Amino acid sequence: MYLKLAHSEISFCVDFDKTEIPVCIIESPKRWREIQKELSAQYLGEDGEWVLSDHDKEMNFSKTAEMIFNPLQLDENQRRLVTAFLKSFAEKAVNESHWRESQELNSIIQTFFGKMEMEYSFGYHINAETDFSALAKAMGLQIETQYETDLERLLQYCIMIKELTKIKLFIFWNLRNYFTQTELELFFEEIRRRDWKVLLMENHLDQMMDGEKWYIIDKDNCEIY
Description:
The chain is about 40% helix and about 20% strand. The protein is α/β, with parallel strands linked by helices. Strands 6-7-8-3-9-10 form a six-stranded mixed sheet. The chain has a four-stranded antiparallel sheet with strand order 2-1-4-5, covered by helices on one side. The two termini are about 25 Å apart. The relative contact order is 0.22.
């Protein structure tokens, strides 16, 4: 995978094929607002000028990028994640490891509904095969996470996103407002170890951390990289 993120009106291209963590610093409030609005719109599926590509093949931004604005307000049971989880659950329920158990459970369910039909003066019909996604939803299946720190929660959230979806890129907004340098160093270690592609969006930075690559759009809209 060789990811790049580019914009038609920005001269630099963010390259994710290096061990460095790319950081885009946008000092102009107006430019910061415009870029955030455009990326947010594309994240929701609208058209825009940002192009995320893999080996120069354009990717669907809304399906391959995850944006995190506030790591303290993560929703592990958001609709998109739950839908992906239920789909994954249904697939694993009938795979080779669980096929026999799923068939036995399906037989029990069919027998139960057959007996319940005797309680009524009319007949009814059910599907011959159990929809394990619908069954899991009916049982109130929800994602649970356990964590001791906010950083651990963020890491677990990212791990879950990678496991359940086709996300290729994480975009974090003003992450330095929430975590210390020591915490971020630990987070960067995990990012490199797991070979995640991430982009940090910041509106002001004073000091570069080890292993970062800065792309700057200053207050006069000059680009420095």
